[in-house]
Every structure is written in C-alpha cells, then in structure tokens.
Specification:
The protein is α+β, with helices and mostly antiparallel strands and 172 residues long. It contains 1 helix and 8 strands.
C-alpha cells in the first residue's frame, strides 16, 4: 500500500540566495574600507599640492629678491616707506596657479569656492580654503590656512599665522 504524502508549508532557503547575500555583504565591506582609504589619499594629495604651491611662492619671493640685486632691476615690493604695499607672490610666478581666486579680503573667504588660493592685500596674507576642512587642525578652529608675507632684511618670507596640522603632519 502506498501512503500519500502531504506537502508541508515551510520557508525554503535556496543556497543561491545565501551565496548572493554573502557576496553582497563582502562587496559592501570592501567598498566602505576603500572609501575610507580614498578619503585619506585625497587629503594627503591636497596637502602635498598646498606644500608644492607654498614652495613655488617662496621660491618666487627669493628670486624677486635676487633679481633686485642686479643693477638694472628694481624689486617689485621693496619697502621704500613704512606703509609700502606687500607684494602679491602669485603675481611673481612665471605660470599662474590654476586655483588662484584673486585678491579677496579674509572676511569674504566664505564666498570663495573650496580648493582656492587668495591674497588679502590689507594684511599682506595668502590663504587657502581646503576642499575637505575636516583634515585640517588649526588652534582656533579656522576653516582656512593663512600665511603672512613678511619683509625681512633680505627677501620676503611666508610665515604661517597659526600652527596648522593637516592629516597629522605640520603644514609649514
């Protein structure tokens, strides 16, 4: 005699669904880890670009001083009077900086797009507004880095206004 079997209603997990779920979870975790490392690399790249621009500006200031030593040349920002204007170091570069926003007062920096350099002729400062200000550690919580163009006995120098730390490294 044959016995009749009645089907039992139950949820049946197909092994394919479990495999696809585990694969999706692995891809999600790998994407999150790579995203975090990508942000760190972007912050380091931006810091390196800022350091490179600062080096070019410092070199331009020194070259301006050296050229002023030649008899046929006059220095662009020679402090003749006590209230002389500090030169704009961006104007001394042979090739303009692609992300230079121009002469902008520090009070209007919030109107400048992130990732741009500015020159404030009132204080004789250059500033940079970072793309990602979260990586910037400034003592006053500033959202930009500022450097003073100082007149010394020789060439003009760039000096940071505050002690900036960017991505765990000092920015000088």
């Amino acid at each position: 005699m044959a016995t009749a079997r009645t089907p039992v209603a139950r949820v049946r997990w197909n092994s394919r669904w479990v495999e696809w779920g585990v694969l999706t979870l692995c891809i999600g975790i790998a994407t999150a880890v790579l995203w975090r490392y990508g942000q760190q690399v972007r912050a380091q790249t931006e810091r390196a670009a800022v350091q490179s621009t600062l080096g070019a500006l410092r070199t331009a200031l020194v070259l301006d001083y050296v050229q002023s030593m030649l008899p046929q040349r006059k220095r662009t920002g020679d402090p003749v009077a006590a209230n002389s204007v500090v030169p704009n170091p961006f104007g001394m570069l042979q090739q303009p900086v692609a992300n230079y926003a121009g002469e902008v007062p520090a009070a209007l920096l919030q109107e400048v797009a992130p990732g741009r350099w500015v020159f404030d002729k009132r204080c004789g400062c250059i500033g940079y507004k970072p793309l990602e200000p979260d990586g910037l550690d400034a003592p006053s919580g500033a959202q930009a880095v500022w450097f003073m163009v100082e007149s010394t006995a020789a060439a003009y120098q760039l000096r940071p206004i505050q002690a900036y730390v960017w991505g765990g490294l000092p920015l000088e």
